Amino acid sequence: xxxxxxxxxxxxxxxxxxxxxxxxxxxxxxxxxxxxxxxxxxxxxxxxxxxxxxxxxxxxxxxxxxxxxxxxxxxxxxxxxxxxxxxxxxxxxxxxxxxxxxxxxxxxxxxxxxxxxxxxxxxxxxxxxxxxxxxxxxxxxxxxxxxxxxxxxxxxxxxxxxxxxxxxxxxxxxxxxxxxxxxxxxxxxxxxxxxxxxxxxxxxxxxxxxxxxxxxxxxxxxxxxxxxxxxxxxxxxxxxxxxxxxxxxxxxxxxxxxxxxxxxxxxxxxxxxxxxxxxxxxxxxxxxxxxxxxxxxxxxxxxxxxxxxxxxxxxxxxxxx
Length: 321
What we know:
The chain has 3 domains: 3-105, Rossmann fold (3-Layer(aba) Sandwich); 112-131 and 196-287, ATP-grasp fold, B domain (D-amino Acid Aminotransferase, Chain A, domain 1, 2-Layer Sandwich); 134-193, ATP-grasp fold, A domain (Dna Ligase, domain 1, 2-Layer Sandwich), CATH 3.30.1490.
């Protein structure tokens, strides 16, 4: 019998539009011979099953079901395609844990930790994972401490993704405006030293019960850094596998698998790094990476010889275990 799979997407985060693209690709490529696939949209307080019929079908949030002509549809598993809150901060996972419905991404603890870039860096530093020096600011904190930091700097929301609100600051007079921009997206921001180097990223997921670090992607942005335009509007060149020293690539893959294990992760994630002067520094862990056909995880899967259909099937089957 086919399994009923909900592909949940939307939400109120700035990244909702990116999430909708990911969900459409997942729905397109999930194997319809094995799964009944339903796209569930979070639209404010409403959770709606998307379909061609104009009559809207609402999810009963008491048990995450919906009804068609008096027949109640229950889900066997959930494929999470939401970037930002309420998935990347763990709120949605807590809901599904209460209902005992399996899902394909990491749990509450891992999501809430990796969503908080500063605390994740602090935690992983205890395991020897290097990252850029940074100061975390709240809205009422004194700005003087960061005004003494050496330029250039990165300013970004502490708990947000897709580079919304992020700026590279090269001139002193641009620092305070960059801080105010970042605060539009979060009540905590990071002011981080700029590391000039090669930006790479490594996907990690469970394949056949083994933690698998995927081929590394090198990102060559046409902008000052890998911002929203570079990520989603073609202002970057992404090379998979990365054209870097094979020994360095192997080290980064090893570290990525190590981070995945130390975080007790599940599902797929993507870990970003900067390589500078023979050393590599972790930038952040993305717990629900983008899954459009042009996104980095699908690129890395193709380099492994894994189709999108197989990639998404692996993800769901791991959840169903």
